[in-house]
Design goal:
Elements: H1 2-19, H2 25-36, H3 39-47, H4 62-69, H5 72-80, H6 95-101, H7 105-113, H8 128-134, H9 138-146, H10 161-168, H11 171-179, H12 194-201, H13 204-212, H14 227-234, H15 237-245, H16 260-266, H17 270-278, H18 293-299, H19 303-311, H20 326-333, H21 336-344, H22 359-365, H23 369-377, H24 392-398, H25 402-419, H26 423-436, H27 439-447, E1 461-463, H28 468-474, H29 476-482, H30 485-489, E2 492-494, H31 499-506, H32 509-517, H33 532-538, H34 542-550, H35 566-572, H36 576-584, H37 599-605, H38 609-617, H39 632-638, H40 642-650, H41 665-669, H42 676-691, E3 713-717, E4 720-724, E5 732-742, E6 748-758, E7 766-775, H43 780-788
Antiparallel strand pairs: 1-2, 3-4, 5-6, 6-7
């Protein structure tokens, strides 16, 4: 409502601006002169007969203007001239209210003597007396009370002058109000009394005065609070003592069933807690949710309060409505000190709440490792919980606390690993540890000579080569023709994973690294022919894929069921970051899957210009056909992708090749609505191809291979680094024995094969292999290049100094 009045006021002000002048003629001059205190001018205007009760659009009269401005002589003249002492402005304020608000004592007295209404209300129902108490106007209150102002009138919020005075702590005003008949037990709209206002303001003396005047000590407000509850909540210790001495009930609960002791415990008011306990507060009382003072103190992390309550006899294992104890709440909040204290006091650590979660589960779901350790030392059951999904490790994982989850799995599995006596049992624990990243358990079992390369046989996973997104990219009609739809209906079960394959599936870098360092086979296939590298690419685990490449994983390995290589999988999954590394290996461009799709086909089908560009730059064939005779250019046409079509044509894609049904790329889309741009591009390419002159055969002298080369990729992973080059007549080298392993001196060691190529012509090539062993962390790269006579290790790609005649320019969008 206040906002409504405020907006109304603004509207009226705006109206006054539209009117442009407050009033017209002599009346306006009188109002202006009165507000400016020009007594002489006011007298002349009154003598000329100007209306003393005229007002502007805001309701301001000459008397209101003079009173607000503090011009006593003008006020007297206006009253003698017949001014209405009770005229109001647009906010329903009288001259007396404005004089009181602005501390005009003498003018207020004149107005009162002139008959000003003492109990008139403004737009917020406030009287002159209420305004006087709000502003601590002691003399004004005295005058108004003597003049007969009613002290029990309530404003819009239900507050009286006594409530405002009690909140402000003005003892003299309170005495005048009480002497004038103020009722201390009137309630405002929230059922708060003057006594509660005094408590809120922190005025002990006022509390005493009101109590002696008959204020109800145990009155309850709208939310069930008493003066004592408020005092306990706010930590007003002196007032708490006074109220208890005056007979306040220490067990009076609020609307939520919370007693003053609970409020003090919740807010960590230790002195209040002690005082209430001495006054006989029930230490094990419960609120509507069955929480005790100890539970709420533990929930809020008030350790000192918890100790006070426990010493006074609080039940340590009390359970609330949710089945949670003080220990459970302390764990959920990560309050380590409280957990340790309660454990020492005999608190149960494995109690399950109504959802079947223990204290350890709550600590884990919040990622509090310190609290977890404290609970484990106190005897918490690592497998506690109603079901597996309620166990601590599972809750930590579901909330994204990966380190916490893996630590908990190690805590669970390590004792079992140390006790395991049979190989079968050790392998089962080993696979469990691999799947969940329990590195310590894995290390212990490897020390017990568990092979890292045995295959699990108990579980199987679905293998589905084509996802719904792949089928959508192919289109329903073509998917049917390729026989691809059956893959969606009948996923194959794959088993026989090694520990490395399982770790790759789980995406746990640290476990993959540990297994590789301990001799895991990088290319061990499961029953479907999937290698760890293929799994890493399919699951989009970039770091793991790079790690496997650094360990010599076979980039040309294909799946038995689909025929797909890692490069094909990367192109199909639109995974350019790993495709970049695979392209740099210089292998697998022409491997095709069971549908005849090569990596370039899939890059075009999935509209990945980045992957397609990289493949084209490094020699992928543009005119290779799939099982239906479609080239990559056919797919660019069917996808209505003029950009990729242009890239393929720039790399010598033949626009006249026909599919098995006898259609060229252009003929596939000719006349289709929306395909006009792509169709025109293919049509023009077909014309220009027919008009091309025969290509001149290049002589040996026209080829300068040593100056034409491209530097493809530098891959880094931790300490392992490999420089991958595809030589086109330039010095290159590669790691032939990797990964780097620690030598006897502790330095990193890698064996490098440097190959210097010298061309006598395009057909002749002489290889001069130089094998050398280089040591030192991150130094072999520079030494190997120097031995080969190549450039330094700058990561900036080296641009060709001379383009080979007839060679296409570098492809846009290349990796």
């Amino acid at each position: 409502m206040r906002a409504i009045y405020h907006n109304l006021g603004l509207s009226i002000i705006f109206l006054s601006l539209l009117v442009s002048c407050a009033s017209s003629g002599k009346e306006a001059k009188l109002i202006k002169a009165a507000g400016a205190g020009e007594a002489g001018r006011v007298g002349k205007l009154i003598a000329r007969g100007v209306d003393v009760n005229s007002s502007d659009v805001l309701g301001v009269t000459p008397l209101i203007a003079a009173s607000a401005g503090g011009h006593e002589d003008v006020v007297v003249k206006l009253l003698k001239g017949g001014a209405n002492v009770n005229a109001v402005n647009y906010l329903n304020k009288t001259a007396l209210m404005l004089a009181v608000e602005r501390g005009r004592g003498s003018i207020s007295e004149i107005l009162i003597k002139a008959g000003a209404g003492l109990n008139m209300r403004d737009h917020l129902w406030k009287t002159a007396l209420i305004k006087a108490t709000e502003g601590d106007g002691q003399k004004m209150v005295k005058k108004l009370i003597k003049a007969g102002a009613d002290p029990n009138i309530q404003d819009f919020s239900g507050k009286t002058a006594l409530m405002y005075a009690s909140l402000n702590g003005s003892r003299r005003i309170i005495d005048w109000l009480l002497g004038g008949g103020a009722d201390p037990n009137i309630h405002d709209q929230l059922a708060n009394t003057a006594l509660m206002s005094a408590v809120e303001g922190g005025h002990p003396e006022v509390v005493k005065v009101l109590a002696l005047a008959g204020a109800d000590i145990n009155a309850v407000n709208a939310i069930g609070q008493t003066a004592l509850s408020i005092s306990s909540d706010l930590g007003k210790l002196i007032i708490t003592k006074i109220l208890i001495r005056l007979g306040a009930k220490v067990e009076k609960p609020d609307s939520l069933g919370r007693t003053p002791l609970m409020m003090a415990s919740m807010n960590g008011r230790d002195d209040e807690v002690k005082r209430l306990l001495r006054a006989g507060a029930a230490i094990n009382g419960k609120d509507h949710l069955e929480k005790t003072s100890l539970i709420v103190a533990a929930e809020k992390g008030n350790e000192s309060t918890v100790k006070i309550l426990r010493k006074a006899g609080a039940r340590v294992n009390a359970v609330d409505y949710y089945g949670m104890t003080a220990m459970t709440y302390a764990a959920r909040g990560g309050h380590i000190g409280i957990i340790r204290f309660l454990a020492a006091e005999g608190a149960k650590v494995n109690v399950m709440d109504r959802n079947g979660v223990t204290a350890l589960g709550h600590a884990a779901s919040s990622g509090y490792i310190g609290a977890i350790n404290a609970l484990l030392r106190a005897g918490a059951d690592i497998t506690g919980g109603k079901s597996e999904d309620k166990q601590a490790w599972h809750l930590a994982r579901s909330e994204g606390y990966v380190k916490t989850y893996r630590m908990l799995k190690d805590v669970e599995l390590l004792p079992k690993a140390r006790k395991a006596a049979t190989l079968k049992e050790m392998r089962r624990i080993f696979l469990n540890a691999v799947q969940h990243g329990a590195v310590k358990t894995i290390s212990v079992l490897m020390q017990k000579e568990v092979s890292v390369n045995f295959r699990e046989s108990a579980s199987a996973r679905d293998y589905l080569y084509l996802s719904s997104a792949d089928l959508e990219a192919l289109g329903e009609e073509l998917a049917e023709k390729y026989g691809a739809v059956s893959n969606k209906k009948e996923p194959v079960q794959c088993s026989g994973l090694t520990a490395l394959g399982l770790a790759v599936y789980s995406g746990i870098d640290s476990v993959v690294e540990l297994l590789l360092k301990n001799g895991a086979e990088t290319d061990a296939e499961d029953s479907c022919g999937q290698t760890p590298l293929a799994i890493a690419v399919a699951e989009k685990h970039l770091n793991i894929a790079l790690m496997l490449l650094m360990h010599g994983a076979d980039v040309g390995a294909t799946n038995k069921l689909s025929g797909a290589s890692p490069l094909i999988i990367a192109a199909k999954a639109v995974f350019p970051k790993v495709a970049k590394a695979l392209v740099a290996m210089g292998e697998g461009y022409e491997i095709k899957d069971k549908f005849g799709f090569r990596a370039l086909h899939w890059a075009v089908i999935k509209k990945s210009a980045e992957i397609a560009g990289g493949l084209l730059q490094h020699g992928a064939k543009t005119d290779a056909k799939d099982n239906l005779g479609f080239t990559s250019l056919h797919w660019a046409a069917m996808n209505n992708d003029p950009s990729l079509a242009s890239t393929l044509l720039a790399n010598h894609a033949d626009p006249e090749i026909k599919s098995m049904d006898g259609r060229t790329p252009y003929e596939l889309i000719a006349g289709k609505e929306g395909f006009e741009k792509t169709a025109l591009l293919l049509k023009e390419a077909t014309k220009s191809k027919k008009q091309e002159p025969p290509t001149k055969k290049l002589s040996d002298e026209e080829i300068d291979p040593l100056k034409y080369f491209s530097r493809l990729q530098i891959l880094y992973y931790r300490k392992w680094m490999a420089e991958l080059f595809k030589g086109e007549g330039f010095c290159s080298y590669k790691t032939i024995k990797g990964p780097m392993h620690s030598g006897k001196s502790g330095a990193d060691v890698a064996t490098i094969e440097c190959i210097a190529k010298e061309y006598a012509g395009p057909e002749a090539e002489k290889k001069n292999p130089l094998k050398l062993l280089v040591t030192g962390k991150d130094k072999y790269n520079e030494k190997a290049l120097a031995a080969c006579g190549c450039d330094d290790t700058s990561q900036t790609p080296l641009a060709p100094s001379k383009q080979r005649p007839g060679e296409p320019a570098p492809v846009s969008g290349a990796l």
